Amino acid sequence: MLKVGTGWSDDPDSLTTTQEALDMAVEMLDGHPPRAALVYAAVDLDLEVVSQAMLERFPDLLIAGCTTDGEIAGGEGFLEDSLVITLFASDNIEFTVGMGQGAVANPQDATLTAVNQARAGTETAPSLAISLLEGLGTNIHHLVDGLRTALGADVPIVGGAAGDQLRFEGTRQICNDVVTSDAVVVLMLHGPLVVSSGVSTGYTPLGQPHVVTRAEGQVVYEIGDRPAAELYADYLQQPSIFYPLAVRDESRRSLVLSSPLNFDAETGALHLVNPVAQDSEVQLATASRQEIIDAARNAVGQAAAGFGDCNVDVALLFSCAGRRATLGTRTGEEYAGIKDIIGADVPTAGFYCYGEIGPDIMNGPSLTHTNAFIAVLIGSPES
Question: Measuring CA to CA, how many Å separate 202 from each of 254, 291, 373?
Fold first, then answer.
C-alpha cells in the first residue's frame, strides 16, 4: 500500500504556511502515519522554521526538499511564493534519505555520500530515487552521472535542481533538520513500486548544425570561429535568452537543450545554464508558447501509456524555470492541460527547476534535461 497526500499554502509566515500545508496533506492520508516528505518551497521562506515545524509534529519523518522557481500543487496548478508538502505513507515500502555536500567542487563525492547515507537506512534495494540538487554553479550532468554510478543502472532517478525565482543568488536544500546549499539530497523508495515517466520540451531545432569552436564550462565563446552571439544575430537579428541551444547527441531520443543566461556585449560570448562542450554541434531551438504547453501534455501522456493497469498513487512534475519564463502569464496552462490525464483525485506536486532529471525512454537511463517537462507517475502494485 502506498498512500500520498499533498498540501500547499501561500501564507507569507513560514510557520503558518507549514502548518496549513501540513494539515492539508495529512488529511489526504486518511489516518495513515506519514513516513517521508518532499518539500518544495519559495526561496523567501525560512526553511529552518519549515523543517522544525514538520519534525515537531512528526519526529520520525524523513524530509527531502529544496527552494524553487515556482511550485505546482494538484487542484491549484502553478503557484508562486508558496510551500508544497507531499507526504508518503506505506506499510510495505521503506523510505530513506541522504545528503552529500560540496556538489559544486566534488560532484562525485557529494552524490556518493548522499546515496550511501540513504542506503544505510535499509538492506532493501531502492526502486526509485528522487533527487533534489544544488541548481547554481554546478554541472548537473556530472551530478547525474555520479548518481547513476552510485545507484547502478537499474534504479530510475528523477528530480530537479533547486531554484531561486531566477534571482541567481542562492538556492537551498533540505534533508531532515539540515538546511544548506551546495548539496545533493536523495529520497529513496524501497519496495514494490510501479514507476513510469515521460519527458518533452516542445522545442525544435532551427537551420543547420554549427560547431562550437571555443568553449569553457558554461560559457560558449565562439561558434563556427565567430562570436557565439553572431549565430543568434544570423537567425534572430539580435541575441535572445528565449532561444536555447540544442546540442546534437545521437545517443538519446530527446534534445539536449541549454538556455542562455546572458550575452557578453563586448565579446559576444554566450553564458548558459548548463555547459556545452567544445566541438559540439549545436542549433538554435524554438518553440511557441502553445508548443511548450502541449509538451507538458505529451510528457504526461507518455508516462500514462507506460504505467499499465495500476492505480496512480502520486504524480510528480518537474518543469524548467526557462519554460515558466517563456510562458509568462500562460504558465498555469501547463497544469490545466494535463490534469484530466492525471485525474483530479491523484495527489500531484511539482516545481519549476534549474535542470530536470529523468529517463527519456521507458526503462532507459536517467538523463539531464533543460527546458523540459518531466512527469513521473508512481503507484503500488497492490493499489
Answer: 10, 5, 9
Give the pLDDT confidence score for residue 217 in this predicted structure: 86
Q: What is the pLDDT of residues 77-95, one digit of tens each?
A: 999 999 999 999 999 999 9
- Whose cell is 534533508? That residue is 175
- Distance, in Å, from the CA atom of 126 to the CA atom of 146, rounded to the nearest integer, reads 16
Query: H helices of 63-211, where?
Result: 107-119, 140-151
Domains in the chain: boundaries: 2-199+291-379, 204-286
**The CATH number of the domain covering residues in 204-286:** 2.40.30
Match 554546478 to its residue by C-alpha cell: 138
For 37-80, write each residue's pLDDT tens digit.
999 999 999 999 999 999 999 999 999 999 999 999 998 999 99
Q: How far apart are CA 340 and CA 321, in angstroms?
A: 23
> How much is the pTM?
0.95
Tell me how far apart the alpha carbons of residues 54 and 344 are, in angstroms, rounded to a whole number.
26
Residue whose C-alpha cell is 518539500: 39
